[in-house]
What we know:
The complex is a heterodimer of chains A (138) and B (406).
Chain A: H1 3-15, H2 20-31, E1 47-49, E2 54-62, E3 65-72, H3 75-88, E4 91-92, H4 93-98, H5 103-106, H6 121-137
Helix pairs in contact in A: 1-3, 2-3, 3-6
Chain B: H1 5-9, E1 18-19, E2 22-23, E3 25-26, H2 37-50, H3 60-80, E4 88-91, H4 94-106, E5 115-119, H5 128-137, E6 140-144, H6 154-160, E7 165-171, H7 183-192, E8 196-200, H8 212-215, E9 219-223, E10 234-238, H9 240-245, E11 256-260, E12 263-266, H10 280-296, H11 298-319, E13 322-324, E14 334-339, H12 344-353, E15 356-357, E16 359-361, H13 366-372, E17 377-381, H14 388-405
Parallel strand pairs in B: 3-15, 5-6, 5-7, 7-8, 8-9
Antiparallel strand pairs in B: 1-2, 4-10, 9-10, 11-12, 13-14, 14-17, 16-17
Helix pairs in contact in B: 2-10, 3-10, 4-5, 11-14, 12-14
Amino acid sequence: MTIQEIQEEIIDEFDMFDDWMQKYDYLIELSKDVPQIEETHKVDENLIKGCQSKVWLYATKEDDTVRFTADSDAIITKGIVALLVRVFDGQKCKDILKNELHFIDAIGLKEHLSMTRSNGLVSMIKQMKFYALAFQAK
Amino acid sequence: MALDIQNIRAQFPALHQEVNGRPLVYFDNGATSQKPQMVIDAITHYYSKENSNIHRGVHFLSQQATYKYEAAREAVRRFINAGSIEEIIITRGTTEAINLVSSCLARSLFKTGDEIIISAIEHHSNIVPWQMACEQSGAILKVIPILDSGELDMDAYRDLLNEKTKLVAVNHISNALGTINPIEEMIPLAHAKGALVLIDGAQAVPHVKVDVQALNADFYCFSAHKMYGPTGVGILYGKKDILEKMPPYHGGGEMIKEVKFEGSTYNDLPFKFEGGTPNIAGGIGLEAAIRFIEELGVENIAMQEADLLAYATEKLKAVGGIRFIGEAKNKAGLVSFIMEGIHHYDAGSTLDKLGVAIRTGHHCAQPVMDRFGIPGTMRASFAVYNTKEEIDVFIAGIKRVKLMFG
Lengths: 138, 406
């Protein structure tokens, strides 16, 4: 699936929920699906430090695609990380760089990316794109 | 005297709204309190009818605005029982008040090898300015450790004090833990070694009666916005003889007597430290906030909050799996805690969806979190308008969080 198609799929999934607690319960479920970063890569170098919660992100190049592994110490954050990884994992570098993420806003999770939350998710998206850029240049 | 809480709540428009489809429960008062109508009205009225620059104009509006701004200064003096209005410097807040003192003393009093003592439960705003002063002057920063209870280690404090100690800067009440520090005991100990004492009173002023003369503190700082007043205005109380010896802080208008290119002379206290046009509306709003507190009585407010603290502590204990961070015997109206195995971000985000506003994280006191080996806490801090029914909603939310993430 393309990045756009995955985003539409996520939006459809969240459309099923009519209250916040259901969305959060779903994020808790999703948090279990994050391709787990290996302990050896769970180091400060791969840490995207937010004020409230931490996110670790690691990427490898596979042909001309990027494979992501990640983790977070907070479950809600980890659920959102799972969504970000689902959208970008296995995609071509050029597609990761080209596509904007509109699904976060559409499913009502934008506040988790706001300045006050500063939970590292904005930096995570930047870092994912940075990996794509670096691998593309190789 | 028991207060009529419903009548008090009616005066706070911001409390009467829904957040995420639920009635708002506002427990982030340690960060900033909501504002009563009389404060909002005072500010609106100033901008609607009285707006003018102060201290210079000969026209009616300027004189009126000056009169009201200076009345606010007098209200502050009375509120904390300072000896004179010359000792009341109006700043942007507690942070600026502390920076004013640290900056001016770094340029005058502190010398290489001098020692400045702070504590391990300070807000970043009572740490970083002293680090900067040390960098500038060559003075050395010393830190009073805390006990597991969240209380200061007073024996260690006595040991740290010596003839090289030039200043002790501690908070009256810790924002992260709620500990009420024994400043009545700490101030004379510092004075006995010839050191000055600065008290960060940001968390104290809305909750306990402060008498700066009885305390004999050399400096006492606080912010209007944590005491039902507006943001962007705060107070530095300083003893007159000390303030007179200090060099000025910000250069500009208002703070000068005469300006020539060869050199300028500075204004008298308190204006010497108030360069530039101040936050006039903020000062007027602060005066209204003081009236609000004085009408209720600080002692009555303290009793109401102590009641809420006891109730919340008991209810939280009953939930189970809660670790309290800070269990000082003498504690202000806030609970700081962690839920075993649950990240504060998950808990805080979920409570938000249930309409409950609390603070999560390190509360701008990272060294405190390091001391307890945790990344952050959940903090519910109470104000006079909070109720036990709101605590019940909060506890129901905590139970929900436990089910979801536990």
